[in-house]
Design a protein that fits this description.
α1 packs across α2 and α3 packs parallel to α4. This protein has a single domain, classed as Undecaprenyl pyrophosphate synthetase, CATH 3.40.1180.10. The chain is of the alpha/beta class. A six-stranded parallel β-sheet has the order 3-4-2-1-5-6, with helices on both faces. The chain is built from seven helices and six strands, in the order βααβαβαβααββα. The N and C termini lie far apart (37 Å). Bound molecules: 3-methylbut-3-enyl trihydrogen diphosphate (2 copies) and magnesium ion. The site of one 3-methylbut-3-enyl trihydrogen diphosphate has 11 residues, from β2.
Length: 242
């Protein structure tokens, strides 16, 4: 596969790639501000970059990609900005039922959907159903997602299921997370120069490797992703052993 011409040789072989990658798509607002544009312009470009990177990850053989699109805390933003992000999500959902369905990507949504507009909830269900049989990458899109909220949701489900105290194990909690059954998160990538998780995949990332990059999300390219993969491949994961 010709991706970067001569640099191809330097690409991390698939066996050393992370199976599950989490990306915090951050820096849209700052990208727009630098250009004297409204923050929404950053979200528009960020949404395009998301499509490119998701397709690239699938081609690269990543098993699961989980992207942070909207957090449980992002409702604090001005209504106009929230509305524009929701409209971009609508556009993506409609597209995923037309153009995107030619991709071999299985789309899933994680987070609390009950607070989203009904048409968005319906489109999400449709997109999941339409891609359920795909055999390529699983793409989890985190919308109204918060790691704490996810754990609270898992605990509520345990209680509702009548699980006894002594049967509450890490596996029992895990099996009630939105990502149940998926491989462990290996790599968490955050562009934009911030060094925090912002409530992202806090259970799943317990043993993940973190890569923080200075680039703003709308400027993020396949090459940046390959750099993160190289950095990941250089890490020595010990999981508490030696
Ligand atoms: C990430 O970019 C997109 C969302 C959180 C929805 P930001 O909008 O947070 O951009 P910055 O961090 O303000 O630059
Ligand atoms: C995290 O970014 C959420 C998403 C990228 C969707 P934020 O921009 O909301 O995080 P903070 O506020 O900088 O921690
Ligand atoms: Mg931000």
């Amino acid at each position: 596969m010709q991706l970067f011409g001569k640099k191809d040789k330097q690409q991390v072989p698939q066996e050393f790639l992370p199976r599950h990658v989490g990306i915090i798509m951050d820096g849209n607002g700052r990208w727009a501000k630098k250009r004297g544009l409204p923050r929404t312009a950053g979200h528009v470009t960020g949404a395009k970059v998301f499509r490119t990177i998701a397709k690239y990850c699938d081609r690269r053989g990543i098993e699961v990609l989980t992207v942070y699109a909207f957090s449980t805390e992002n409702w604090k933003r001005p209504q106009a900005e929230v509305d524009s992000i929701m409209n971009l999500l609508r556009d993506y959902l409609k597209e995923s039922l037309s153009d995107f369905k030619h991709e071999n990507i299985r789309t899933r949504f994680i987070g609390d959907r009950s607070m989203l507009a009904e048409d968005i909830q319906a489109l999400m269900a449709e997109a999941e159903e339409a891609t359920a049989e795909k055999t390529g990458m699983t793409l989890n899109i985190a919308v109204n997602y918060g790691g704490r909220d996810e754990i609270v949701h898992a605990v509520r489900t345990l209680v509702a299921d009548g699980v006894l105290a002594e049967a509450v194990t890490a596996e029992a909690v895990e099996s009630r997370l939105y990502t149940a059954g998926q491989p462990e998160v290996d790599l968490i990538l955050r562009p934009s120069g911030e060094f925090r998780l912002s409530n992202y995949l806090i259970w799943q990332s317990a043993y993940a490797e973190y890569v923080f990059m200075d680039v703003l999300w709308p400027d993020f390219t396949e090459k940046d992703l390959e750099e993160a993969f190289s950095e990941y491949a250089r890490r020595n994961r010990r999981f508490g052993g030696v």
